Amino acid sequence: MASVGTIKNIGQLHIFALSGAVAVLAVAAFATPALASDSFRARLPSAEKVVSDFGSDPIRGGAACQVVSNAMLILADPSDEWDQGNGPDAQRHQDLDRCKTEAAYASAIKSGAMSPGPIPQSPDPDFYAKTIKPIVKKIDTLAEDSEFQQTVAKRYLGGQDYAHWESYQKIQWASQKELAEQRNHVITKTLLIYLGLLTACLFFVWRAFRPWRYDAKTATLRVGGHTYAVHYDAGVVVESNASHSTQHIPGTQTIEVNQFGHQQVVRTTPGRSVTTLHETIHLIEKSGRERVMKLDDWGVSARAGHQVGGVFVVPKGRSEGEYLQIWNFTLDEAKRDKGTFLRTFGLRLFGFSMVTLAVMFLIVLYATISAMLDGETGIADESAVGIYLLGLFIGVVVAAVAQLIILALRQRRFAADIAAPIGRLAATDARESAALAAA
Q1: 350, 354, 357, 359: CA torsion to nearest 10
Q2: How far is CA 75 from CA 26, 49, 168, 187, 314, in A?
Q3: 3-state secondary structure of 78
Q4: 265 strand-pairing partners
Q5: DSSP assignment string, 25-36
Q6: Count of C-beta atoms within a 10 Å radius of residue 323
Q7: Which of 182, 192, 137 is nearest to 377 (CA)?
Q8: Closest CA to 430 of 299, 281, 308, 298
């Protein structure tokens, strides 16, 4: 039978054992993160190992190095300072980061884009931008792929480390997915806006450029959405008058006040005068009715007895029009008014603007898509103004060239389809008018 002293000693022993166990557990609990931290880094491969495992594909090897490098940051103990550049693990991390650049140059060498050799310390900017940068982008894109990340992590991380890494990455994947959805929404909205504007401009450009239609039976001309009635005058001249009017446009002066309070002229724009020739030609038509042709700056050589004709167009909804071409059949002369022809058959201000804007939006759309392919959501703010101005300038040049081309084409068609047949009718009517006047 145990004595009281024995029981007391046994109790003290139990208390001592229990205290020791608690101390061991506490030490183990505090020591576990550091041990785990040391153990997972010891198990992670070096950059050379990763490159060796993916030796046949430098791009996949560089991307795998990126995944392992990021895993080191995720699994690092907060108390460690290796990620700040201290210790051998910092060197390993730097080697893994440098692996991406080495993989890009290895891929360039493999594709024949550059000769074998060491990585240049100061690479040629053009070569880097055209050759190395796109490869680096491929490596980054692959390193951000969740399936590739999981493949690499399962290959190099243990069970507990993988679980820790995966729990962190799931948050990153969810965030990346949300950002991707927002980015796709912005991209879709931007593209739809530009495509909508471009489509609207192209519709009006097509409307301005489509071939004009002339119905000889109804004497109706349709050009770029505008409708005109085509008429002609023809007869013998009984009277012709000409006069001039002069409009003086005054010049301007820019006056500034200097530091002493005195005014001084700093810029002067001279005035100018604009003189307009006004012609009035009275015709007797074959019906015996008198017609008056009022012309400005035509310079038609006509006097009494000459046989004269002219074709003019009247816009729909109006009662008066403008002459496009005038003939003096007696002198075998024909004159065409460039201003009226431009207003009738040209692109006009609206059509010219639509061509300009269509080209501008096409350039902006191209720049936007290029930026999106580079990973951006659109044109950078600092580049937007320059791209718009460049597009506007090119658009104006294209519209001006298009204006010249379309006018040249339409002048030839006007001469063949309208001027020639109406000229023959006018010549016949003018001869009949002259015969009746002589009789």
Answers
A1: -140
A2: 22, 20, 9, 35, 83
A3: coil
A4: 255
A5: HHHHHHHHHHHH
A6: 22
A7: 182
A8: 308
Band of pLDDT at residue 10, cut at 50, 70 and 90: very low
pLDDT above 70 (res 2): no
- pTM for this structure? 0.61
Residues 6+ apart with CB under 8 A from 132: 104, 105, 108, 123
Tokens matching residue 410: 């339409």
Q: Which residues are 220's β-sheet partners?
A: 215, 229
Residues 437 and 197: their CA atoms lie apart, in Å, by 61
Alpha carbons within 13 A on the beta-carbon side of 132: 18
Assigned token pair, 432: 């009949």
Q: What is the DSSP string of 107-157?
A: HHHHHTSS-SSPPPSS--HHHIIIIIHHHHHHHHHHHT-HHHHHHHHHHH-
State the DSSP code for 212: P
- Tens-digit pLDDT profile for residues 20-56: 443 433 333 333 343 344 544 566 788 888 888 887 8
Orientation of helix 58-75 relative to helix 146-156, angle to 10°: 70
Please name the residues in contact with 298: beta carbons below 8 A apart, sequence gap of 6 or more. 277, 279, 323, 326, 335, 337
Domain map (residue ranges) of the chain: 22-157
Q: Tokens 């991707």 sit at which residue? A: 180
* E strands present in 258-331: 263-269, 272-284, 290-296, 307-315, 322-328
CB 140 within 8 Å of CB 103: no
What distance in Å separates the CA atoms of residue 153 and residue 151, rounded to the nearest whole number?
6
How far is the C-alpha of 145 from the C-alpha of 129, rounded, in Å? 24
For the purposes of burial, counting CB atoms within 10 Å of the CB of 30, is it exposed (0-12), middle (13-18) or buried (19 or more)? exposed
C-alpha gyration radius of the chain: 44
CB 229 within 8 A of CB 240: no
Question: Of 233, 219, 239, nearest to 286 (Cα)?
Answer: 233
How far are the Cα atoms of 130, 194, 353 from residue 204, in angstroms, in the given order?
39, 16, 10
- Please list the helix, strand and coil fractions of the chain in percent, rounded to the nearest 5, in that order: 60, 20, 20
Cα 103 from Cα 51, distance rounded (Å): 8
Give the C-alpha separation, 297 to 32, whole Å.
101
